[in-house]
Design goal:
Layout: H1 5-11, E1 14-15, H2 20-26, H3 39-42, H4 44-56, E2 61-63, H5 71-76, H6 83-100, E3 108-114, H7 125-144, E4 148-154, H8 157-169, E5 174-178, H9 192-201, E6 206-210, H10 215-228, E7 232-236, H11 272-284, E8 289-290, H12 298-307, H13 333-342
Parallel strand pairs: 1-8, 2-3, 3-4, 4-5, 5-6, 6-7, 7-8
Helix pairs in contact: 4-6, 6-7, 7-8, 9-10, 10-11, 11-12
The structure holds zinc ion.
Length: 344
């Protein structure tokens, strides 16, 4: 029997791992552009494997891969008929792998919804459309069995509040995070801290930010949120080296001036050490749920877990450079000569 989200949060910093869509795109199972998780039905083993890699790396939550598995997006790729099967299967796969971590209490299972692209704050009719999309996705997730729901990459507070209402209606705990694409406000004009305060007042158990910004440009936004809410705070940046000049992954430009987002971001990727440093920094700022979003690899997650003081199953294979033939202290004369050539 899993403990609840509230109990996990009380027990100490939680570690989240996301970025399933980007990673499965790199592995050849998701098409960049629509980014619809067709992989759930077409290659379920690929999803299972990535869940397992994040679990071994220390993730406390298996997030069902239902990101963009909503009616609007499935219609774009001609698979609206697969909507229910895709949502149900994603939760089943996440549950199945979460149980594999049962030696240490098991991972929690999160249902997942995101921005719909259907919401328009100036058109009240879109609220009903969005509500219906969330209701069907989360209704299936609740039936399959999730411990809580993550509503994420919200551009609009208004849309996030609809998700929260639907999650509440199902009697599930909610973690609601905003996508900080703009310098300081949601697309409907609320400062991020104020938007989080409203979400907390409306009953979200966890609020915060996810995606779009790398640690360098997301961390400065955390403190205000931490100061404004009493509930748990989540921060899940992308592992990319965003800067004050290019604060989001969408703004990053390659040396030849081309937009790197979304499929040429590789040269901007943070090392595992940078993400480990971020995890510690976030915990020191009072963040309760430290995670990682698009671009994440299991090596990042393991380094974050270890920086937070944990030993995880994948730690068995963490680096031991003292065993590397060229880096160990008792290096032979032959190899020492070789090493000098690496400096050339
Ligand atoms: Zn993301």
């Amino acid at each position: 029997m899993n403990v609840s989200l509230a109990e996990r949060l009380r027990a100490g910093t939680m570690l989240g791992a996301e970025g399933y869509v980007f990673e499965l795109e790199r592995r050849g199972y998701i098409k960049a552009g629509p980014f619809v998780p067709e992989v759930v039905l077409d290659f379920p083993d690929a999803v299972r494997e990535l869940h397992r890699e994040f679990l071994r790396a220390g993730a406390d939550v298996m997030v069902a891969l239902t990101y963009y598995a909503h009616r609007e997006k499935l219609r774009d790729v001609g698979r609206e008929g697969d909507l229910e099967a895709m949502n149900r299967s994603a939760v089943r796969i996440a549950r199945e792998v979460a149980r594999e971590g049962s030696a240490d209490g098991g991972a929690l299972v999160a249902g997942n919804v995101c921005n719909t692209w259907a919401y328009d704050p100036d058109d009240r009719a879109t609220r009903q459309t969005v509500r219906a999309m969330y209701a069907e996705q989360l209704g299936w997730a609740a039936e399959e069995g999730v411990d809580f729901v993550i509503s994420e990459t919200n551009d609009y507070l208004g849309e996030a509040l609809i998700a929260l209402e639907v999650i509440d209606g199902l009697g599930l705990p909610a973690m609601v995070t905003l996508a900080p694409t703009q310098p300081g406000r949601t697309r409907d004009g609320y400062e991020y801290g104020e938007a989080c305060r409203i979400l907390a007042a409306e009953g979200a158990q966890v609020v915060g930010l996810n995606c779009d910004r790398g640690p360098a440009t997301m961390v400065p936004l955390i403190s205000t949120i931490r100061d404004l809410v009493e509930c748990a705070v989540a921060v899940q940046p992308v592992p990319y080296r965003t800067t004050s000049a290019e604060p989001t992954m969408q703004a990053l430009r390659s040396a030849d001036g081309e937009r790197a987002f979304p499929v040429a971001l590789d040269p901007f990727t943070c090392t595992r050490f940078e993400m480990a440093q971020f995890a510690v920094q976030a915990r020191e700022l009072g963040v309760d749920y430290v995670g990682i979003c698009c671009g994440a690899g299991p090596h990042h997650v393991r380094a974050m877990a270890e920086a937070l003081g944990r030993e995880v199953p994948a730690s068995k294979y963490s680096p031991s450079m003292e065993l590397h033939p060229m880096f160990r202290t008792a290096i032979s004369a032959k190899d020492a000569a070789f090493l000098s050539s690496w400096k050339a």
